[in-house]
TrEMBL record:
This is LysM domain-containing protein. The chain crosses the membrane at residues 12-36, 64-89, 110-128. The keyword Cell cycle does not apply. Belongs to the AfsR/DnrI/RedD regulatory family. InterPro entries: AfsR-DnrI-RedD_regulator, BTAD, LysM, LysM_dom_sf, OmpR/PhoB-type_DNA-bd, Sig_transdc_resp-reg_C-effctor, TPR-like_helical_dom_sf, WH-like_DNA-bd_sf. The keyword DNA-binding applies.
Amino acid sequence: MSYTGRSRLTDFARGLGALMVLALLLIGCPVAMYAMGGSPIPDRLPSWEEISATLIRQDTDQSVFLATILLIGWGAWCLFIITVCAEMMNYLAGRSRPALPRPVRPLQHLVRDLVATATLTFSAAASLTTSASAVTHTHTVTGVHAVAGPESGGQEHLSPGQEAPQREPTESAWTPLLADETPVHPETDRRSWRTHIVMRGETLWALARRTYGSGARYPKIFKASRSIDQPDGVPALTDPGLLHPGQHVRLPLSGAPDGASSPPRARSPRATTQAAPSGRGKSSGTPSPAPPGSTSEKSTTSQVPSPVVAPPADHSASPTPPVSNGQESGSPLAISLPSGSRIGLGLAAALCVAVAATRLHRRRRRPLEIDSEFSEHNSEPPIAAPVLKARKAHLDTYAERAAPIPSDPELVRKDLSAAEPDHLVVGVRDGQALTIPLAGLSLGLSGDGAHAAARAIATELLAKAHRYRAEVLMPQTDAQALFPGDDITDLSTVLDGLTITPSLDEAIDCMEAELLRRGRILEMTEQPDVSALRTDDPAEPLPTVLLIASVPAYNGNVHGLATLGHRYGIGVLALGAWPSGTSVKLSSDVTVTDAHGPNAERLAGAHLFHLTTIDAAGMLQTIRTATGTEAEAGSSPPSEDAPSEAEPRTASIVVPAPRPSEEAPRPPVRLDVLGHVHLHTSDGPIDTGLRQRARDLLAYLALHPDGVTRDRASADLWPDDSPESVAPTFNTAVSNIRSVLRAATGLSEPMYVIHSAGKYRIDHEVVEVDLWRVTGALAEAQQATDDATRIKALTLVAGHCAGEFASGLTQEWAEIHREHLRRVTSDALANLARLIQEDDPERALLVLEQAITHDPYSEPLYRRIMRLQARLDRPDAVRRTYRLLTARLNELDAEPEEETRKLVNSSTSTSNRN
């Protein structure tokens, strides 16, 4: 966003100039033409003979020419009047203004620019004069536009055997927090299904009834929708009896084979809602059926019933959908952190991507250790514990729906195709996710919990702001109030999606300049709004802009921007009372205790997500390191009460288990922990019977071949479990391992997991572990006294590093050891290539190619390959390697370092000279 220094007086002058031009065109032009040529309306109609004589005779006095000019002028003025009236009526009606034919389009653009300039600067005049009437006027306009929300397909609750009565359609209780909202058109795919966004109060039964004419066909919708990737912050669809607002479901298109049975046309497309007997619908618990004869509320904010499937009793022959018992099934709606913060899955997903990007940037920059101490590496700043907890919560959602857990590169690649965030889940109300749209947001937060809630919203947007998807604008004082310290200022220097201005006036200048720029783009592209422009041209970077600031009540500029926000992708989150939109008051536990405005009913009683300043600081640091600027961050160490990711003890990685003698038979069981955790016998893999916690314990014991105490293992494996339950959980996992292996091998004597001297360990006599072959080879390489022995040991490492450690586990201990093992393995392969490149450069190239397959983002590895290729006089191979590195780094929004560019340039220059 370009920064402009226009003052309020300049804005007022521009608006006054626009008004004067409009007055000149509307009044001055006709007055001037009337003075020159009189009235354009003749007192009588001329005859044909008079017209012919006038056209035939010579125009010596220029009267015909002047009359023609005046006629054209009056016609142009009439066209101008018609265009102004059409634009004003469309603007007041809130309709999209279609483009006129091309000959008239420049005139239409002129009218729009004049009206837009005059409208914006009226707010500047209000600010200069501190007029209370301007605020009242803006409030009135906002209220008029805010009631036009999208229609919601609500839920019908019928008593047993009761037919659905014909009711007048009522407004849905789900109303976006917009100043001027337009209906949302669901996307359609290439098949016979369309995507529907679940509104508050909707159920699968109601959707099936409206779509198929029978609610009993809800399983078809559930089956088609359960595989949809839901937006960030919205739980996956795992229970047909529980829908959350904002979830995406698939419905058949009109005319599709499965949707041939459509609901009766007499039924209103808007579903009606019943008021709960207590006066307010609740989303937890099983609702009581509506009593016969009950009527729906006739207000625009009708109460919302419990979103459970409630089929009529006369459908007992059909399969009955499950009913929610008030427990949240599937993914949780909120994540509680030890500090007292409470965040949603949307922020957890964004932080998960930030952690993945941070680790890949660290791999990219980490220098290789290719001497005898290659297993040692420089320590890096730890990742804050709240961030790691949020990451685990997000990854656990994959396990809950039996989906493969993505690796760090997969998370980053998926983030490449992520769309601009158009909404945020900001809290929970009655067990349902509370969603707010961003474009056109007009919301004020006040009370004790206002800053904590605004901090959570701002942090989530900042985590999603990279790649030009969102932009947060804050004055300096408000930024420091929300994020004390230098973290937010440091982040603004590296994150394109964050702008901190010295004052509110300069923030308003930026917003107005951006609004005018977007208005010109919309005119040139002939699109009605920013959302349509993104659909038509996804390459156009027009992120949603959100102003977060303390706005004085008399500042009409911000209120004017809020009224125009939806069309231009702009929103306002005010810190304090907000008369122009919806204003809520938050208690110390961030619960809405009072609400005013168009969406007060929807927000009343909601519990909003919130962040402490310490947790927010750790998250901002991770967002910064995700941009690849960790070396310049200069971040302060985390506080003692916020434990963070720590480096593992190297000994637990490189010390191998005792090897059985060569005469001993091969163990009957093989445990693979490089990749997914699997057990194998001579008959094949063991696919059934082993519980997940038993797999976790096997992977953990594989890292500790000398044994580990139960307390330490339990603390690492299940840190969130109560002390009373960890001992039974550990014993159950050990018993499960033994019983499964005894059944698979037919051997009842071995214990498989031995308990000796207070420690538990895997019995290496009957179980071999693939990780131990790698750690054993690494230990031999460290202890080698000559290059031949070291080459032999490192060759074993190259032959056994099949995959990353325990790729399906999300616990912190697993991720720490996974990263550490990747580093020492990459260093080992680089060291092997160094040792053999003089005698066998081709083999050294193969080893380095294996290394970048194992660690595809390590730029030092690519440079070693390029140097070896240049030494072999292969400039084309050097350029191909450079292009591969560029493509990999493009996923991280990064570019190769100057040293790498010089390397490829020098190789190309040498090739050209030869």
